[in-house]
Design a protein that fits this description.
With 352 residues, the protein is mostly helical. 73% of the residues lie in helices and 0% in strands. The protein has one domain. It has 17 helices and no strands. The radius of gyration is 21 Å and the shape is globular. The termini are far apart.
């Protein structure tokens, strides 16, 4: 879609008062649905003729919980960023964040990620919203990396497992990786490697009226149109990606990982990262595996490198991101973050 063929605002078939009344109702319904995801997933899993604590039961519960969660987040975040975009065009956003001020965008985005309790796939909706709003790509990558890698849930569990000193060091390393990786990717000028439809979305107008003449209802309609366009392109890949991740989550080969990461060989750190990348779980799900690995004698740096790779570079995340990024940009993202994770693993093994 190009700027010339961009769809105009939805026609005024609904009166303005209905939009004003519908907004809080829609928000309440969204909040209610999001709050019932865990009970719903447990109930739906119980309908299958499998034991809940079996590998298959774990995979089914994970899929039923994660798919609606990611789709709800994607819908809500894209709608909000679409409405905000009607005030701040991508060009205006980039101008605000240009020059020296953009330097602060990387640590701020990483800090937002640290405070956001999302796994890698749940962070993708915010990433897509940031990209579509015209926020610099490197800044958005800082958020995407920090969110799952050093979120509050994982840090809290890690604190209980290994103590505050190591958890704090992990926080510093994870925050630094997210900030530096975002800065490096931002300096590489990678916007040309976004998918064509994302670039067209940023280049196109936000409506058929000038921004200053749009009413609030017009802006709500722009948000709805953004949801229709973006979610309509991505939803099927959310199903595919999380489906693969659920299967992996239910059948984590813990014994094999212990054999790979239990030794002191130099190759154990890259091997741990290579094993971790194809997997998918959140910080809460990987902590028990980390505890088991440490209990079996795995080196701390190797184990933490594995943890970082699982929650920051998951295969399902890459599948969903493919709808926004080209293969080349995904490869660059993987290489930069993996380099930071490897450095963390080697340094932890050297100093602890």
């Amino acid at each position: 879609m190009t700027a010339e063929t961009h769809d105009p605002l939805p026609p005024r078939h609904v009166t303005d008062w209905a939009w004003y009344a519908g907004l809080p109702v829609a928000a309440a319904v969204w909040w209610l649905l999001y709050g019932q995801l865990i009970p719903f997933s447990e109930w739906a899993t119980s309908l299958f003729p499998v034991a809940r604590d079996s590998h298959t039961g774990e995979a089914i519960a994970f899929f039923i919980y994660d798919v609606p969660k990611v789709l709800l987040l994607l819908t809500g975040i894209v709608f909000i960023t679409g409405v905000l975009r009607s005030w701040f065009s991508p060009e205006k956003t980039r101008a605000i964040l240009a020059g020296k001020r953009q330097i602060w965008g990387y640590p701020l985005a990483a800090a937002l990620g640290v405070l956001t309790p999302f796994c890698s796939c749940s962070s993708v909706p915010l990433f897509i919203g940031f990209v579509s709003a015209g926020i610099p790509l490197g800044v958005t990558f800082s958020f995407l990396i920090a969110g799952p890698m050093v979120g509050p849930v994982g840090l809290g569990l890690l604190y209980g497992l290994v103590g505050w000193k190591i958890a704090t060091i992990y926080l510093v390393f994870g925050f630094t990786i997210a900030t530096v990786a975002g800065f490096v990717m931002g300096r590489m000028g990678l916007e040309r490697h976004l998918q064509d439809w994302v670039r067209d979305l940023n280049a196109g107008p936000v409506g058929e009226l000038p921004q200053e003449q749009l009413t609030f209802v017009d802006r709500l309609k722009i948000g709805v149109e953004q949801v229709r366009e973006i979610v309509g392109k991505v939803w099927i890949w959310v199903l595919v990606g999380i489906g693969i991740g659920a299967a992996i989550h239910g059948y984590v080969p813990e014994q094999i990982m212990m054999q790979i990461m239990g030794g002191e060989a130099w190759w154990s750190v890259p091997a741990a990262v290579a094993v971790g990348v194809p997997m998918y779980t959140n910080a809460a799900g990987v902590i028990p595996i980390v505890e088991a690995l440490l209990g079996k004698g795995a080196a701390l740096g190797t184990t933490l490198a594995f943890m970082m790779s699982v929650i920051a570079l998951s295969l399902p995340e890459m599948i969903i991101l493919k709808q926004v990024l080209t293969y080349r940009l995904i490869a660059i993202f993987l290489a930069v973050v993996a380099a930071g994770i490897l450095a963390t693993g080697f340094l932890f093994n050297a100093i602890l």
